[in-house]
Design a protein that fits this description.
Layout lengths: L4 H4 L5 H12 L4 H10 L1 E5 L4 E3 L7 E7 L1 E8 L2 E9 L2 E3 L2 H6 L6 E4 L3 E7 H8 L3 H27 L2 H11 L1 H6 L2 H7 L4 H13 L1
Helix pairs in contact: 2-3, 5-6, 7-10, 9-10
Length: 204
């Protein structure tokens, strides 16, 4: 029998991920962890590989075990970064997920990434019969909505310098690992402005 890739690469097992999710979002019994583990679908993406393409319907909530992803869209011929996510974070294309319509957002792996999908339909089925999984589901959605609101407020109300400082606190691994071009796009500033802001921040 062929070993799963997470065994070969000494990555977390689905059980480990179920425990991580329970610690972060909801307390669970042993039986509830069994149920949550059964929902998880392990996936691996190479650097540069598409996780979700334009026109795909998003059917999953995704949890990044190890790796880095970029969520983006095209506007006036330019690609715009909507979200950057690193280890132990959640991402999804929320409108496509809930309306079951094709997404205009695309998601690529910026590093080799180990990701666990939580299929929405399966998660909702088990949540109907389990309060703690309902809580986990709700808290994941709340976190996603809050993160979107934080990003929207950053680009609407904060100066370029404050945008970068806030992102450094909220997403330190993304700041360290993502290409500057994508960080600048996420913060809605030019790469030149980002370079100046970074230089000034380092001097403070």
């Amino acid at each position: 029998m062929k070993e799963p890739y997470y065994m070969k690469e000494l990555m977390n097992t689905p059980r480990d991920i179920a425990r991580e999710l329970a610690r972060k979002y909801s307390t669970m019994t042993h039986d509830e962890l069994d149920i949550l583990e059964s929902v998880l679908v392990p996936m691996k993406f190479a650097k540069g590989e598409a996780i979700l393409k334009d026109g795909d319907v998003c059917k999953n909530i995704y949890y990044i075990d190890k790796g880095l992803i970029r969520q983006y869209y095209f506007k006036n011929g330019k690609d715009m970064t909507e979200h950057l996510g690193a280890d132990r974070s959640i991402f999804m294309c929320i409108e496509s997920l809930f309306k079951e319509i094709p997404s205009h957002l695309q998601v690529d792996a910026l590093e080799t990434s180990i990701i666990y999908a939580l299929p929405k339909k399966r998660l909702e089925q088990v949540a109907l019969h389990n309060v703690n999984i309902q809580i986990l589901y709700r808290k994941i959605l709340e976190e996603s909505l809050i993160l979107s609101q934080v990003h929207a407020d950053l680009v609407r109300f904060e100066s370029a310098s404050n945008r970068y400082k806030r992102m450094s606190k909220l997403m330190p691994q993304v700041i360290l690992r993502a290409p500057l071009l994508y960080i600048a796009s996420y913060l809605q500033m030019t790469p030149e402005t980002l370079s100046r802001v970074r230089a000034t921040t380092l001097l403070e």
